[in-house]
UniProtKB/TrEMBL annotation:
Family named by the database record: Belongs to the class-IV pyridoxal-phosphate-dependent aminotransferase family.
Keyword Thylakoid listed: no
PROSITE patterns, per database record: AA_TRANSFER_CLASS_4 (PS00770)
GO CC entries: cytosol
PANTHER family hit by this protein: AMINO-ACID AMINOTRANSFERASE, AMINODEOXYCHORISMATE LYASE
Gene Ontology biological-process annotations: amino acid biosynthetic process; carboxylic acid biosynthetic process
Cofactor(s) for this UniProt protein: pyridoxal 5'-phosphate
Protein name: Unannotated protein
UniProt organism field: freshwater metagenome
An example molecular function term from Gene Ontology annotations: catalytic activity
Alphabetized UniProt keyword annotations: Pyridoxal phosphate
Length: 288
């Protein structure tokens, strides 16, 4: 039996209820975090809650009640021991509101859910989509529940047998995936898009940069165009549930939604070294 934590109560998943007028449902007015569960414990919880707090403030929801969420996490994991290896999602919305964009005056809605998770494949393909990340968006840097453009892009990726969709920003600079950050090895240099390219600063991205730096592996945050990505020796994705995942093929979709080119990559030595480094560091510290 799987239970969920909703506004202070543990309930069976089949009995879980949120008000139909909740603004997280009607207009996507909320923030969230996805957290990897390892041996029944949340990985990098402190970093995730720090980002959740930043997102909540950025969306105008105010600061989170950190101790309440920490208690909820503990309760949900204690009650769902079958999800020893899995993923947890913490969702905070502005609560119930009118049938429009304006917010109401109700209490925020807080939901913590956990489920088992399958391991990602050893490699993946990506679809470079024609839609853009807006680096000047009101939601830039906020992990918002407004995920429809991600769902649409990922749907198209799956239609072309690709595991992830990758966006460029409005200046045609590489940005991010629907739920991943992207890295490329260009002329031997590990590179990743800089934060001014409309991306969300992922927790795994942050840890990869930090741990690479400590290991003497230089990571350059820079503007990367499509030509540079195409000429890269290696490409890999990082995310909370994927850790470090090599990319072996990239397909490019044009504005008419046609595949116009593709590029294959090899699982190179740099990606393998960083993947091993990440696994070693993560296994030594559950809350880095």
């Amino acid at each position: 039996m799987t239970t969920m934590w909703i506004n202070g109560e543990l309930v069976e998943e089949s009995q879980a209820r949120v008000n139909a007028l909740d603004h997280g449902f009607t207009v996507g007015d909320g923030v969230f975090e996805t957290i990897k569960v390892v041996s029944g414990r949340p990985f990098a919880l402190t970093r995730h809650l720090t980002r959740l707090n930043s997102s909540a403030i950025g969306l105008g929801l105010g600061e989170i009640d950190r101790s309440r969420i920490e208690n909820a996490v503990e309760e949900i994991l204690d009650d769902n021991q079958h999800a020893a290896i899995g993923r947890m999602r913490i969702t905070l919305t502005s609560g119930t509101g009118p049938l429009g964009s304006g917010r109401g005056h109700s209490q925020h809605t807080l939901v913590v859910a956990v489920s088992a998770a399958a391991q990602w494949p050893a490699e993946c393909g990506i679809l470079l989509v024609p839609w853009t990340r807006n680096e000047r968006s009101a939601l830039n840097g906020i992990k918002s529940t407004s995920y429809a453009e991600n769902a649409k892009a990922l749907h198209h990726a799956h239609q072309h047998d690709m595991a992830e969709a990758i966006f460029f920003d409005t200046h045609e600079r590489l940005s991010e995936g629907t739920g991943t950050n992207i890295f490329a090895v260009i002329d031997g240099q590990v590179c990743t898009p800089s934060v001014d390219c409309g991306l969300l600063q992922g927790i795994t991205r942050e840890l990869v940069i930090q741990w690479c730096d400590a290991a003497g592996i230089s990571v350059m945050q820079k503007h990367i165009n499509a030509q540079e990505l195409d000429s890269a020796e290696e490409v890999f994705l990082v995310s909370t549930t994927r850790d470090v995942q090599p990319v072996t093929i990239a397909k490019h979709m044009d504005n008419q939604l046609h595949i116009v080119s593709s590029r294959e990559y090899k699982q190179g030595p740099v990606t393998k070294k960083i993947a091993h480094l990440f696994q070693a560091q993560a296994s030594n510290n559950i809350d880095p």
